[in-house]
Specification:
CATH architecture of the largest domain: Sandwich
Number of strands: 13
Strand content: 35-45%
CATH class of the largest domain: Mainly Beta
Shape: elongated
């Protein structure tokens, strides 16, 4: 997926900026933003373009003052943001939101950070009525900065359930973790009883905090 997005953005930018060097534009920061953050930043740039003479236009998303950029640089930055957003849209259109298998499913895919299910088990506790759905997952962070986070919302067979999961992963590293979902009273005794699972994550990195798009899995 990251290769597809990279190729799409590169192709769009090559068309938009043929013969233009964008050395002064913080492309690395822009590439790390969510779709919502890109939209917000584009709006801030538009305001700065319309009122350039009014002084400081600080962007919390970029962590710098937009008034430090010339009008041409702001326009180029805006066009670059649109190109990145187009790349994100094309990636979402070609990405798989559903799968027939839980094992092997990518349940998080956000800007070079992925969480993939490698194994699954249902675990009953010997001395309580508790039943857990345990997802064994691989986390891969191909960025040069650290990610930490947790499950934001998760449902099993349409029921929202409690979860136990927290991670902290430095840039360029991989990690194996267990994601535990509490499925008490759902009538699930085997993996065949699981018909659907939806999940989203809260990710924290640099000064940003975002909630990923929900992944919906319809299981065979």
């Amino acid at each position: 997926m990251k290769v597809v997005r990279s190729l799409l953005v590169s192709a769009i930018c090559a068309t938009l900026f043929s013969g233009t060097v964008l050395a002064d534009i913080p492309k690395d920061k822009i590439d790390s933003l969510s779709d919502h953050e890109l939209t917000t930043l584009a709006a801030s740039i538009q305001i700065a373009l319309l009122s350039k003479s009014t002084g400081e236009r600080y962007s919390d998303i970029l962590g710098e003052d937009l008034s430090n950029y010339s009008t041409d640089e702001l326009k180029e930055m805006r066009e670059y943001i649109w190109a990145v957003k187009d790349g994100l849209s094309d990636e979402n259109e070609t990405g798989e939101d559903e799968t027939g298998e839980l094992i092997g499913a990518v349940i998080c895919d956000y800007k070079l950070f992925t969480i993939t299910v490698t194994d699954v088990e249902i675990r009953s506790h010997a001395f309580t009525d508790e039943t857990d759905l345990v997802l064994y997952v691989d986390l891969v962070n191909d960025n040069d900065f650290e990610y930490e986070g947790y499950v934001d919302t998760v449902t099993v067979n349409g029921w929202q359930v409690d979860k136990l999961f927290w991670f902290n992963l430095k840039g360029g590293n991989k990690q194996k973790e267990k994601l535990v979902l509490k499925i008490n009273d759902l009538g699930i005794s085997s993996l065949d009883d699981i018909k659907s699972l939806s999940i989203s994550f809260r990710l924290l990195y640099a000064q940003y905090a975002i909630t990923t798009d929900e992944v919906n899995l319809e299981l065979k």
